[in-house]
Amino acid sequence: MIPYGKQDINQDDIDAVVNVLKSDYLTQGPAIGQFEQAVSEYCGAEYAIAVNSATSALHIACLALGVSKGDIVWTSPNSFVASSNCAIYCDATVDFVDIDVETGNISVALLRAKLQEAKKNNTLPKVVIPVHFAGQSCDMAEIAKLANEFHFKIIEDASHAIGAKYQNSPVGNCQFSDICVFSFHPVKIITSAEGGMLTTKCGNIATKLKSLRSHGITNQPKDLVKDDQGPWYYEQQSLGFNYRITDIQAALGLSQMKRLDEFVTRRHQLTALYTKHLPINLTHLMQSPDCYSSYHLYVVLLDNAAKRKEIVTQLRARGIFAHVHYIPIHLQPYYHNLGFRKGDYPNAEEYYSKAITLPLHPNLTENDIIFISDTLRELM
Ligand SMILES: *Cc1c(COP(=O)(O)O)cnc(C)c1O
User: Fold this and answer.
1) Residue ranges of the domains in the chain?
2) Which residues line ligand 1 (CB under 6 A)?
3) Can you tell me the distance from the alpha carbon of 277 to that of 52, in angstroms, rounded to the nearest whole number?
């Protein structure tokens, strides 16, 4: 079976992990700081904070921006459920902004319209979480202008987008956001097995994130609120979590960071091969000239939604593990119970009805792409 996404682990990655296993620290060792520094330098953000998943990262990102009961958070319905669950963890209310069918990203025009409406109703969001779908950045400059006008904070869910660029600068530099979140799950661009990272330009936010990932505890003498009782002393100052990454995972992530550009270049080569070999009348996600995608996913859109189920089923029967990203979050049973209904976000629903994710990962060959393209052509 050709999977839709798969990690690429080489001997350097294995050696990096084994070295940690032979060292004194399995967790909270030197690899974590090195991994954070590598991501912070790559992205050009002053601070990077590693955690055990992007889901944890999104949760503490919301908390660090003060999201709590009574607050409203908006995100894209065309995403993984973690993009909106993070707000519910904080007892906030979630709502969605519909997407552009052409890119799968939230529509700036619909965001503007929804903000104007919300202003009248006094239901403006505290935080908006744009999701860089499939590795292509949202239009962050425009979203940041709206943030200025309507006074909300921005968390970029860049789980798909490490290695991507927006206006020639790396996603993750937080030029147009308060916090940016990456995932290092094995299907993503680089992996640390499980793992996530937050980047920010703001020292205060970074301090809060570091505290929240480790029980709300500090042992830094300058941060203590009571008298220092000795070298063993620490204080729990807020309600945090154990969201720490291990040194083993960080060593893998650090080693993979060295290969990030190579991976993204390879993904671009493979998507060019798809463009060459797929039927020419097939619709692909539109790429904005402002963006350089990391191509986490390769999505095609069928004209005829009625055929989608049969095509995906047949692709799998023939050894091609096609997938669909995403079932709109608001259609999940849990979100139905919160009051969302079919028809609430028609673009996300239309997009979902037509989308197929074809396999894309660095180890595919041109022959694989030809096989997938020919099989899809035949099924269509
Ligand atoms: C994968 C993913 C997440 C969650 O990442 P984990 O590291 O698995 O917690 C969140 N948002 C999006 C858009 C994702 O694709």
Assistant:
1) 11-256, 259-379
2) 53-55, 79-80, 82-83, 131, 157, 159-160, 183, 185, 196
3) 39
Does the domain at 259-379 match CATH 1.10.40.30? Answer given as no
Q: What is the pLDDT along the chain (380 residues), one digit of tens a residue?
A: 999 999 999 999 999 999 999 999 999 999 999 999 999 999 999 999 999 999 999 999 999 999 999 999 999 999 999 999 999 999 999 999 999 999 999 999 999 999 999 999 999 999 999 999 999 999 999 999 999 999 999 999 999 999 999 999 999 999 999 999 999 999 999 999 999 999 999 999 999 999 999 999 998 898 899 999 999 999 999 999 999 999 999 999 999 999 999 999 999 999 999 999 999 889 999 999 999 999 999 999 999 899 999 999 999 999 999 999 999 999 999 999 999 999 999 999 999 999 999 999 999 999 999 999 999 999 99
Measure the CA–CA gap between 184 and 194, rounded to whole angstroms. Answer: 6
Q: In the annotation, is 69 catalytic?
A: no
Exposed / middle / buried, residue 337 (Cβ in 10 Å: 0-12, 13-18, 19+): exposed
pTM: 0.98
Rounded Cα distance, 332 and 341, in Å: 9
Tell me, in angstroms, the distance from the centre of ligand 1 to residue 51's CA.
Answer: 13
Pocket test for ligand 1, best of 79, 183, 329 (most atoms within 8 A of CB): 183
Selected from 3.30.2090.10, 3.30.460.30, 3.40.640.10, 3.40.720.10, the CATH number assigned to the domain covering 11-256 reads 3.40.640.10
Alpha-carbon torsion (231, 233, 239, 242), positive or negative: positive
